[in-house]
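Hey forum,

I'm writing up a methods section and want to include a predicted complex as supplementary material. The small molecule is zinc ion. I've pasted the protein sequence and the SMILES. Can someone with a working setup run it? I'll credit the forum in the acknowledgements.
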Amino acid sequence: MNSSFDGVMGQPGVVAQLQAAVVAPVHAYLLLGTPGAGARAAAEGFAAALLCPNGGCGECRDCRLALAGEHPDVLFYTPQGASLLRADGEEIIRLALRSPVEGRRKVLVLADMHRVSVVAPMLLKTIEEPPESTIFVVLADHVPPELVTIASRCVRIDVPGLPSTVVRDLLVAEGCAPELAETAAGAAMGSLDRARLLASDPGLVGRREEWARVPRRLDGSGAAVAVVVEELLGLVQGAAAPLLARQEAEGAELEERVAVYGERGSGRKRLEDIHKREQRRHRAEELRFGLATLADRYRSAVTDGSAPVDAVIGAVQAIDRSAEALVRNPNETLLLQSLLLRLPALSAR
Ligand SMILES: [Zn+2]
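Reply by user p_vandermeer:
Happy to help. Structure tokens for the complex are below, copy them as they are.
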């Protein structure tokens, strides 16, 4: 490894901006973008580079500790709930005011800040004028209204979704069969994390077919909708199996380390937090993937002439609105039911 940014895949523009920022950093950065496209790895590489005496060599003690998540002056804060609570805000402020342990600078990475919610006003002053030794790196999937003011106090760096060709090539380079890499990349919505998971997921093709089959199963009745939605949510649930298997393996590795080295410094809490976040994210991505597949199915009905254009436009708009609403974490069952009740049926191709 010869740069602390080597773990950031397929985002040369983001890396270049961050490397330039290391020279004379400001007090706060916002890394904004598609989950799984590399914002987190970029934040880790950036934090390492900010503490590294060589600007991010990837090899010195500061770099190694920072990249392993173990540097005392790199703090990652990830809120646990669906949105931040007052206690989260107080903890972030406390961490921001704390002096660096080792050097003259510390980096405070705030993950998932699109969930900042009502805590935003409380954090604003600290983020716009932190102690001189503190640099904030704010991560968010998108900028909801509550985050707008905080975002305006940060230097914003967009982390775009990865093109599916880039994701495919990265998967192939990691040893994935080309055909599977192509399918997984196409369903990954710009996320390398998701693509890796899908590449290990034998159920992917079947799920895509089930979502595409939905318009054929609608008959205008609430009863049909209820059955379809229950099945779709079952699919979403089942899709988590490869993720859960991987997490279980990571948990077992941790137990082995604890058995040898003890509980202290084992990173148990960190691993549990990561797993919870991964599960939440996976569910949201699986739903977005399903809705995108559904929208594609309606679009193809225009191409093959099996549905009027107006009906398809309305359907695609309704699907897009539901996909956006899912971000805000509503009741998935009700949301899908009300969507499917509004969608026109399509006959089989
Ligand atoms: Zn270094």
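Some notes you might quote in the supplement: Residues 202-342 form one domain. The mean pLDDT is 91.
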